[in-house]
Design brief:
By secondary structure, the protein is mainly alpha-helical. It is 72% helix and 0% strand. The N and C termini lie far apart (72 Å).
Length: 111
C-alpha cells in the first residue's frame, strides 16, 4: 500500500482525529518493518492459546442467557412473583426472593 493510500485510509477511518496522519503512517510503517513472523512452533502455541481464550469468551457470553432461561423456568414454579411489574426482571425477582428467604431464616420465621 502506498504512503498516500495509507494516509487517506488513516484520515478516513480515523475520522480525521489525528493531528498529523503522516506521522501515524510513518509509525505504522516502522512497526511493520520491525515486526517479524513467529517460528512455526511458537505460532502454533500462540494460535492454540488465542483459540482457547476465544472459546472461554464465547462461553462467558452465553452464560447469562442460560442463567436467564433457568431463572425464568424456576420462577414459573413460584406462585407469587413480581412478573406483573414491567420493570422487574427475573434476576431482581430471584434476588428479592432469596433475600426474603434469608431474612426469614435469620429471624426464625417460616414463610
Amino acid at each position: 500500500m502506498s504512503v498516500e493510500d495509507l494516509t487517506a485510509f488513516i484520515i478516513e477511518c480515523g475520522k480525521n482525529r489525528f493531528e498529523n496522519p503522516k506521522e501515524v503512517v510513518q509509525a505504522l510503517q516502522k512497526a511493520a518493518r520491525s515486526s517479524y513472523r513467529l517460528p512455526k512452533a511458537m505460532a502454533d502455541a500462540v494460535n492454540f492459546a488465542m483459540a482457547s481464550n476465544i472459546r472461554i469468551i464465547r462461553s462467558l457470553q452465553e452464560q447469562p442467557k442460560s442463567l436467564q432461561k433457568a431463572i425464568e423456568e424456576n420462577l414459573v414454579t413460584i406462585p407469587q412473583t413480581l412478573t406483573s411489574v414491567p420493570e422487574s426482571a427475573p434476576f431482581s425477582q430471584l434476588a428479592s426472593f432469596q433475600r426474603s428467604e434469608t431474612f426469614s431464616a435469620s429471624i426464625g420465621v417460616a414463610c
